[in-house]
Write a structure and sequence with these properties.
This protein has 258 residues and is an alpha/beta fold. The protein has helices at 26-35, 52-58, 89-105, 114-122, 148-151, 165-170, 232-247, and strands spanning 5-9, 11-15, 19-23, 39-43, 61-64, 109-112, 127-128, 156-160, 174-177, 184-185, 192-198, 203-208, 215-218.
């Protein structure tokens, strides 16, 4: 039996400041292939090249990845400023309607970092441009120095709703995660349930209430060391199971809410 296909939402880059590519991090592909046991397929995020119906027909689930560009604040009625960073309107034009279509259909999605923020905005939510500027918040950004292992090291605790979706999925209501993001949820979108917070009350784990399929989002980067990390492995394993269910003609949420 062939593996389910998981579309990995790509990012736009320039090689040598002149050659345009759509790319995806190798850790994303490795987590999907080795932990979810699915076939990873990087999606070019340009509405001139792909459409939502074709993507959903070609794939059994989607991983919405992190990325340096941020969701354009105009999509949640905020005025762009320098604090909001850089943007990728083509990714916005593919990712947000694809999320909404998958939520409606029950097609599995796992949303990571920027993807977590896309899931919230797609459902009508908004974002803070810079978490570290808020009173009482820690700096959630990637450390500027050090090795990749040091940058992706576990840095803070995330506490889940006791008895909730993430608590039961992880087998614990508190886990340690990495943190490499600047923005974060301001107002939760319609049906977005915030199921986990960092100690500074930054939202870190969400799902869509009442969605017929797997719709989980995390603000950290679980793809790093996914095969060995006790938090990442159950997340990607459950996502792979949901993709297999979709491929076989079924749709189910990760876990029903308590």
């Amino acid at each position: 039996m062939t593996r389910p296909v998981v579309g990995i939402i790509g990012n736009s880059h320039l090689i040598n400041n002149e050659y345009s590519i759509h790319g995806g991090g190798m850790h994303n592909s490795t987590a999907i292939a080795k932990v979810s046991d699915c076939l990873p397929l990087v999606i070019p995020t340009d509405p001139a090249l792909v459409n939502i119906a074709e993507l959903m027909a070609a794939c059994d689930g989607f991983l919405f990845t992190g990325g340096r560009a941020n969701v354009h604040p105009g999509l949640y009625d905020e005025t762009p400023t320098e604090a909001y960073g850089t943007f990728d309107p083509n990714r916005d034009a593919v990712a947000l309607p694809l999320i909404r279509a998958c939520v409606d259909a029950g097609q599995p999605i796992l949303a990571v970092c920027r993807g977590f923020q896309e899931l919230n905005v797609a459902m009508g939510g908004s974002l803070y441009p810079e978490i570290r500027d808020l009173p009482g918040r820690m700096n959630h950004r990637m450390p500027p120095d050090g090795t990749m292992e040091e940058k992706f090291a576990l840095r803070h605790c995330v506490r889940f709703t006791k008895g909730g979706v993430f608590d039961r999925l992880m087998g614990s209501d508190a886990v340690m995660t990495n943190t490499l993001h600047g923005q974060g949820i301001k107002d939760a979108g319609k049906r977005i349930f915030i199921d986990g917070y960092a100690d500074d009350e930054t939202p870190e784990a969400i799902y869509v209430e009442g969605a017929p399929g797997f719709t989980l989002g995390v603000q950290w980067h679980p793809e790093w060391n996914a095969a060995n990390d006790p938090v990442s492995r159950p997340l990607f394993t459950a996502f792979g199971d949901a993709a297999r269910d979709w491929k076989s003609g079924k749709a189910r949420p990760a876990l029903k809410s308590a």
